[in-house]
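Subject: Sanity check before I submit

Could someone independently write out the structure tokens for this chain? I want to compare against mine line by line before I put it in a report. The sequence has 131 residues.
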Amino acid sequence: MKSIAMFIAIIPLICLIACILLYGLNRKNYHNLLNELKKENVLPVFYSYHSSVGFFGAPVMAYLFLRIKNNKKIFFINEGNDIYNFPNKKNNKHLINGIIPFYYTFLTGLGFTCILCFIGLMIKLQTAFIS
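---
Independent answer below. Compare away.
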């Protein structure tokens, strides 16, 4: 059980390091996408804020780009908005595909962090009620 917990504890760290590397490798493409998107569209405040905070806002913006690419509903943006045509312009689909690994690596790390918090909470509750 202890080795499983250690494995679950190490995965978020590995995912964080991988996210930093993926962001660093794709930073130029990421900023090109943001500049093109901001040039053609007005972003809601939520996405505008996250687009300006760099690495810490990149997961939210990657979510936005992935939803736009898949033509799915996005929070705070109406379905008929021109932003949904963004991937079809220029080379944007190719640039969005470069951001997808960053997004899924972030989600994997977040998921294992939640699992780790849940395990810690269960251990804390077990010791509180058994003692």
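---
OP: Matches mine. For the report I'm noting this point. The radius of gyration is 18 Å.
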